[in-house]
């Protein structure tokens, strides 16, 4: 695991003709930030990607629809509704939690607790068997809520670690290392599933073990993060005091205070659109592959493995491209790639064609999420990192509610026509392109640098 991570962070590559060495890597970091600390930060992406890959995308999602809910017409809508509920909880509470973390300089402390919560609840998914829909949805909501908290908290560390001009490449290091973690966890699970199927075991027997594997990988890799990552921002005693109970009021206040940062708020609107489509790919890829294209569980796991491989390449390579060619142009190109992906997936009638859609989706997935996080990092004021990244999380989670819920509703209302649902998802990426056009990254960066 550590060897694979080291390859991603310390790999010798070419940065537009210039050799990348340790000195070049350090030049991307803020004063006082060490390479080992960035490695620790990136290891959290390595840790939590196993959860998103195995639980949300490849294994438990398809098992819930086909095994727990026995392929019922409402199963896809139930799955997307459970995820939407968890994202709603995060939307309403993360800005308040982020403000508290800024006030007491407690991002790392909070990260430790939410990690423990996600690891334990992921292991608890092993208790879900056929017919236990309510139990499965409850544990899903708990685990995905903790997962989302951790994702937001690690994003808020990015501006503390990277210089503005290198935000894209450092964000890309984390995303690319995350896909290595996702592939490694999925690969171990796939090896176990193949051996279990050879012994004649059913999904209700081998899926619980994959949940234990995922929880163990998450916890072990996150220990590296907690050991190496430091809290750089000093306490902000004058930051707004917002308790979890006051999250709704705090969210309204944060939105109002973010309005002067007009390019940041425009990016938020853009993210709500395109991340809704990305959420569809993450949460429903395995379900679509098995229910529509006819993939078997082991074939689906291989498909998601390749998708993660493509996502690793996209996050790592385009992390450097966006720092040179521009964040906005890079994001626009990936959104166009997503539109193409939706059309290919909707028209696929065989596995070979769908493989092309998965490969393009993987490349676009890594780069679009990495680029969006880097753009947000450039436009967030340094004294409000936790709070504004809490707002960023609000936008991402709103997207994660709207996209999959739209897909689930279209599928349900059209008597299970998932081709229509995936085709309609392309409209989210087109809307994202339209909303991206007025965003000026440099203007947003200068606004964030103004004194409080």
How are the SSEs ordered, and which strands pair?
Elements: H1 2-10, E1 14-15, E2 18-19, H2 22-26, H3 35-58, H4 60-68, H5 75-104, H6 107-124, H7 133-161, H8 167-198, H9 203-228, H10 247-258, H11 262-293, H12 297-325, H13 327-347, H14 351-378, H15 385-413, H16 418-436, H17 441-449
Antiparallel strand pairs: 1-2
Helix pairs in contact: 1-8, 3-7, 3-8, 3-9, 3-11, 4-9, 4-11, 5-7, 5-10, 5-15, 6-7, 6-9, 7-14, 7-15, 8-9, 8-12, 8-14, 11-12, 11-14, 11-15, 11-16, 12-13, 12-14, 13-14, 13-16, 15-16
Can you describe this structure?
- The chain is mostly helical and 452 residues long.
- The chain has a single domain (33-237, 248-449), classed as MFS general substrate transporter like domains (Growth Hormone, Chain: A), CATH 1.20.1250.
- It has 17 helices and two strands.
- Strands 1-2 form a two-stranded antiparallel sheet.
- A hairpin with a 2-residue loop joins strand 1 and strand 2 (18-19).
- Helix 11 (262-293) packs antiparallel against helix 14.
- It is globular, with a radius of gyration of 20 Å.
- Mean pLDDT is 83; it is low at 1-20.
How would you describe this structure in keywords?
17 helices, disordered N terminus, Growth Hormone, Chain: A, globular, mainly alpha, 452 residues, two-stranded antiparallel sheet, single chain
Question: How would you summarize what this structure contains?
Answer:
With 452 residues, the chain is mostly helical. It has helices spanning 2-10, 22-26, 35-58, 60-68, 75-104, 107-124, 133-161, 167-198, 203-228, 247-258, 262-293, 297-325, 327-347, 351-378, 385-413, 418-436, 441-449, and strands at 14-15, 18-19.
């Amino acid at each position: 695991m550590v060897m694979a991570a080291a390859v991603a962070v310390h790999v010798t590559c070419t940065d537009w003709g210039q050799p990348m060495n340790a000195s070049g890597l350090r030049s991307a970091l803020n004063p006082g930030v060490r390479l080992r600390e960035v490695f620790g930060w990136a290891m959290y992406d390595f840790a939590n990607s196993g959860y998103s890959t195995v639980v949300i995308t490849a294994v438990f999602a398809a098992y819930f629809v086909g095994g727990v809910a026995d392929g019922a017409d409402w199963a896809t809508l139930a799955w997307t509704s459970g995820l939407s509920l968890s994202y709603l909880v995060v939307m309403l509470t993360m800005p308040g939690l982020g403000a508290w973390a800024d006030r007491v300089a407690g991002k790392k402390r909070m990260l430790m607790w939410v990690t423990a919560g996600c690891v334990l609840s992921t292991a608890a998914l092993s208790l879900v068997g056929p017919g236990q829909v309510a139990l499965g949805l409850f544990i899903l909501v708990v685990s995905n809520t903790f997962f989302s908290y951790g994702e937001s908290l690690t994003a808020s560390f990015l501006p503390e670690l990277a210089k503005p001009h290198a935000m894209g490449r450092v964000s890309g290091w984390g995303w690319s290392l995350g896909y290595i973690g996702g592939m490694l966890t999925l690969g171990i699970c796939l090896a176990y599933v193949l051996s279990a199927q050879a012994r004649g075991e059913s999904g209700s027997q081998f899926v619980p073990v994959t949940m234990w594997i995922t929880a163990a990988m998450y916890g072990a890799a996150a220990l590296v993060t907690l050991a190496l990552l430091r809290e750089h921002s000093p306490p902000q005693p004058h930051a707004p005091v917002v308790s979890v109970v006051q999250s709704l009021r705090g969210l309204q206040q944060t939105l109002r205070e973010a309005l002067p940062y007009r390019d940041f708020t425009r990016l938020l609107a853009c993210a709500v659109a395109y991340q809704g489509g990305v959420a569809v790919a993450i949460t429903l890829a395995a379900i679509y592959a098995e229910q529509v294209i006819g993939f078997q569980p082991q074939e689906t796991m291989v498909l998601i493995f390749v998708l993660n491989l493509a996502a690793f390449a996209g996050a790592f390579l385009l992390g450097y491209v966006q720092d040179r060619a521009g964040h906005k142009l890079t994001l626009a190109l990936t959104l166009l790639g997503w539109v193409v992906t939706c059309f290919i997936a909707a028209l696929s009638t065989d596995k070979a064609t769908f493989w092309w859609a998965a490969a393009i989706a993987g490349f676009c997935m890594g780069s679009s999420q990495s680029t969006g996080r880097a753009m947000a990092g450039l436009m967030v004021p340094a004294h409000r990192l936790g709070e504004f990244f809490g707002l960023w999380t609000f936008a991402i989670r709103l997207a994660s509610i709207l996209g999959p819920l739209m897909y689930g509703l279209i599928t349900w209302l059209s008597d299970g026509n998932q081709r229509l649902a995936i085709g309609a998802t392309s409209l989210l990426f087109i809307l994202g392109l339209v909303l991206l056009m007025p965003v000026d990254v440099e203007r947003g960066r200068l606004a964030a640098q103004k004194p409080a």
